[in-house]
């Protein structure tokens, strides 16, 4: 009886995993760049207590959110964004960039953050922006996005640019260095970390693979019950 219960419990857990994976999101991370006594440091997925503490202290500089979608969802999202185009297969890495404390919004000549780039360990298959990305932002290299002076400003404190998209054949997330350019007097590059694809590791199982694993456990359970 204990053996049957264990098999049932395992199958239920795997079904839950398959349900989560089938939603299309394989991974999501939020990175905060903050000023630690003059040094820029990164905290990935911090808890609310840390976040509240840094918000009160006024040390937060940049927020980078990265979401990885499975291959099926990637094709759907890309097709909706540009129905007339064809795209390579792979996993969509969607970034959004928020300026939390870089620059001075009251200064009329301060354009805030005007560029965001991520140093992937593997070259992307494709880089683009979504229809929801702020006007004035475009792709300049791989993967990097730049404001091209079509809006009054770049990203001032409190502004967010989402829909910064890049496609990779790899779905495994790891640490990636990144940087923003602050369009102040003379310009300033601020570097931190986010997440990105890591070569040489096994990709995250697709929903079909998880469902196949679940089916195997269900078959095992059926065999056990028949023997009983």
What is the topology, as strand order, of the major beta sheet?
2-1-3-4-9-6
Q: In terms of structural class, how would the helical and strand content be classed?
A: alpha+beta
Low-confidence spans: pLDDT under 50, at least 5 residues? 4-22, 208-222
**Total beta strands:** 11
Q: Which features characterize this protein?
A:
228 residues, alpha+beta, Immunoglobulin-like, six-stranded antiparallel β-sheet, five-stranded antiparallel β-sheet, 11 strands, 28% helix
Structure description:
The protein is α+β, with helices and mostly antiparallel strands and about 230 residues long. It has one domain (about 25-205): Sandwich (Immunoglobulin-like). The protein is about 30% helix and about 40% strand. The chain contains four helices and eleven strands. It has helices at about 1-20, 50-55, 70-80, 205-225; strands spanning about 25-35, 40-45, 60-70, 90-100, 115-120, 125-130, 135-140, 145, 160-170, 175-180, 190-195. The strands form two sheets. Strands 2-1-3-4-9-6 form a six-stranded antiparallel sheet. A hairpin with a 5-residue loop joins strand 10 (about 175-180) and strand 11. Mean pLDDT is about 85; it is low at about 5-20 and about 210-220.
SSE arrangement:
Layout: H1 2-22, E1 25-36, E2 39-44, H2 48-57, E3 60-69, H3 71-81, E4 91-99, E5 113-119, E6 126-129, E7 137-141, E8 144-147, E9 160-168, E10 173-182, E11 188-197, H4 207-227
Antiparallel strand pairs: 1-2, 1-3, 3-4, 4-9, 5-8, 5-10, 6-9, 7-8, 10-11
Helix pairs in contact: 1-4
């Amino acid at each position: 009886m204990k053996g049957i219960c264990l098999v049932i419990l395992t199958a239920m857990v795997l079904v839950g995993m398959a349900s989560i994976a089938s939603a299309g999101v394989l991974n999501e991370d939020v990175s905060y760049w903050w000023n630690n006594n003059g040094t820029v440091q990164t905290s990935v997925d911090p808890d609310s207590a840390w976040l509240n503490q840094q918000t009160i202290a006024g040390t937060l500089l940049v927020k980078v959110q990265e979401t990885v979608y499975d291959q099926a969802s990637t094709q759907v999202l890309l097709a909706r964004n540009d129905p007339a185009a064809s795209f390579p297969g792979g996993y969509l890495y969607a970034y959004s960039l928020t300026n939390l404390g870089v620059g001075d919004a009251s200064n009329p000549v301060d354009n805030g953050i005007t560029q965001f780039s991520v140093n992937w360990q593997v070259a992307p298959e494709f880089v683009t922006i979504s229809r929801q990305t702020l006007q004035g932002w475009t792709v300049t290299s791989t993967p990097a996005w730049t404001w091209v002076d079509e809006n009054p400003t770049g990203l001032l404190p409190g502004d967010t640019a989402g829909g910064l998209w890049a496609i990779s054949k790899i779905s495994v997330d790891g640490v990636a260095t990144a940087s923003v350019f602050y369009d102040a007097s003379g310009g300033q590059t601020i570097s931190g970390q986010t997440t990105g694809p890591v070569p040489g590791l096994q990709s995250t199982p697709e929903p079909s693979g998880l469902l196949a694993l679940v089916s195997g456990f269900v078959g095992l359970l059926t065999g056990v019950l028949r023997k009983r």
